[in-house]
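Re: beginner question about structure tokens

> Can someone show what the tokenized structure looks like for a real chain? I only ever see the sequence side.

Sure, here's an example I had lying around. Input first:
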Amino acid sequence: MSAKVWDERNYVIDKQYWSGTKTMHGLIKNAAAVDNGDGTVQIPMDAHGMSALNMVIIAGTTNYNGIHLIPSVSTNYINITATYVAENFGGSETWKTAFQIVPTLDDYQVMEARLTLSATGGASENFTITLDSAQGSAWDCTLETQDMNAVAFDDVIWGVNERRFFDGDDVLLFQYANTNSRTWGLELIYRRFA
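And the corresponding structure tokens:
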């Protein structure tokens, strides 16, 4: 494996935003994928609370694993851009709020991640950021854990003092059960090569 060198001369700062009213992760419903006929596929997820333009990673399916940008949602499903292949989900397949740089050729540096809530979390449950490393599971790790019980508004800011470097095909996963259904907003500020 060759070493990588970060070049400070040519980079741009970029942002990714997610929002929702419920959890940041969960299970796909025991139902079938639906062909929308427009290059998108409907993935069944009961009362997920996700918003359009969120990015998720799907795992455990036969045909839809990977990172997907959500162009549109409804209460009980999300739509992803994908080639339709008939599949009946068993109810054990997973989805998580995720980030991967596009295109995946560029390494990136996380400047900070900001999580805001509409009100105090009110339940002892963790917001976590984990690395799904492109190098394999031996390099996966938890980057941040924050108990959300007493956290409100913009109290969770990660990365201000720790400039984190990632391979272009590394995936960052965000999880928060959000039992009290707070409206949340997540912003990731990062820089990449221009």
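Each token stands for a local structural state, so reading them left to right follows the chain. DSSP finds no helices and 16 strands in the chain.
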